[in-house]
C-alpha cells in the first residue's frame, strides 16, 4: 500500500524517514507541506487518522510558535486555522496509510507502522 508522507525538505527527521522508506522498497508519495500547505479540512482528516487532538501535531519548539503562540489559549478550530496558515508549525513527517496515520518519529517506529 502506498504511504503518503507529509514532508518538509529541511527537516532531518523527515528526510531520514524518506531514506528509510526508499531503502526498504516501500512505495511512497511525498506531500511537501511547505510548498503545498494543507487545508483546514485536510488537517482535520489527518487528525482523525492520527486519532489525536490538534495539540499533538503542533511543533512547540518552532521559533514561530515560541514568538507568537506560546502560552496563548486557542480552540481546536483556531489551531487548525493557524496550522493551515503556518505549515512550518506542523509536526513532520506524518505518514498516512489508508485510514491510519502516525508521526514518523523516531524513525524506528516507522518500521512497525509499515508492517501493520
From TrEMBL:
PROSITE patterns reported in the protein's UniProt record: ARSC
InterPro entries: Arsenate_reductase-like (IPR006660), Thioredoxin-like_sf (IPR036249)
Species the sequence originates in: Chryseobacterium gilvum
Protein name listed in UniProt: Arsenate reductase (Glutaredoxin)
Domain of life: Bacteria
Family membership: Belongs to the ArsC family.
Pfam families, sorted: ArsC
Gene3D superfamilies membership: Glutaredoxin
